[in-house]
Amino acid sequence: xxRIGVATLAAGIWLAAGALALGAEADEPAQIVQNASNEMLKxxxxxxxxxxxxxRKVYALVDRVLLPHFDTEYAAQQVLAKNWRTxxxxxxxxxxxxxxxxxxxxxxxxxxxxxAERMTILPFKGDPSSGRALIxxxxxxxxxxxxxxxxxxxxxxxxxxxxxxxxxGISYIKSYRTDFGSEIDQKGIDAVIQRLETQGVKxxxx
Length: 206
Description:
Blueprint lengths: L1 H16 L6 H30 L2 H10 L6 H9 L1 H5 L2 H19 L11 E3 L10 E9 L5 E11 L2 E9 L2 E2 H16 L1 H16 L2
Antiparallel strand pairs: 1-2, 2-3, 3-4, 4-5
Helix pairs in contact: 1-2, 1-6, 2-3, 4-6, 4-7, 6-8, 7-8
């Protein structure tokens, strides 16, 4: 479930968010959306073979194109939930970075199979002026099955940013919140952060 989510989040979130272009307030994010999606897909089409040989180059692409539009801190805060309030500033900072790197290294290469034709954006229903938006899309699996994938976005002082993706009704934030919450209860937040950081180092050396 999460693999599809991160792949489409990385390459498709801006295409989906194009549905926000409904008025003056949505003009700016729509332009950002268009530019980022064009850049991502153009780069993927031109370098897929190269990226398959060296996945680290895919990670660099995601960092450059996705990260500025993904609210990593807010997503991490939602994942940690009650544990965010008791975490120290250093623990929060380390978790944000380790969590993002974990997502990137686990699922970043799924981008290589993504094309714009695999996603259909459904008509936007909502009020962008509220500062929140749910972008509904349908993604086609390899076997042709249609999967509903919805993106949660919010207006920040940096503009519109994505923070969650829900696949077939299952939120990736809620899924990680359950997994990490149980592990934190058993071992503590430092142990979880250390595990994520260690996994990131191991994958970086592969």
